[in-house]
Amino acid sequence: VNQVANLTLISSVGDMVSTAYASTKESHPYIRSVCDAAEKGVKSVTEATASCMQPVLTTLEPHVAAASEYASKGFDKLGEKLPLLQKPVDQIISDTKELVSSRVADAKDAVSS
Hints:
This protein starts with a helix and ends with a helix. It has two domains: 81 residues, no CATH class; 30 residues. The longest helix is centred in the middle third of the chain and has 53 residues. The protein contains four helices and no strands. 90% of the residues lie in helices and 0% in strands. Helix 2 packs antiparallel against helix 3. The chain is mainly alpha-helical and 113 residues long. This is PLIN3 protein.
């Protein structure tokens, strides 16, 4: 989970969503009160679940560690095959626009000639 969260693409999307969420809460008082209540509910459920699950997680810890190591190796291979994951959203959008513009220009040139 940490490796996924640390990917440039994922973290930049997270930042964008977080900024939009904070801006929406700030701009709309009714939405803010609903969001605040939802956040408190999620926090309570998370704390209750964590305390209940701790004995189970302690028992499963060696298995989770093995699965985590296996997933980490697979994730490293995925990162090698998809370098796009290492780019922020803004750069991906910019690169895509540039590629499309280039292809359209090539198509225009082909049609013109």
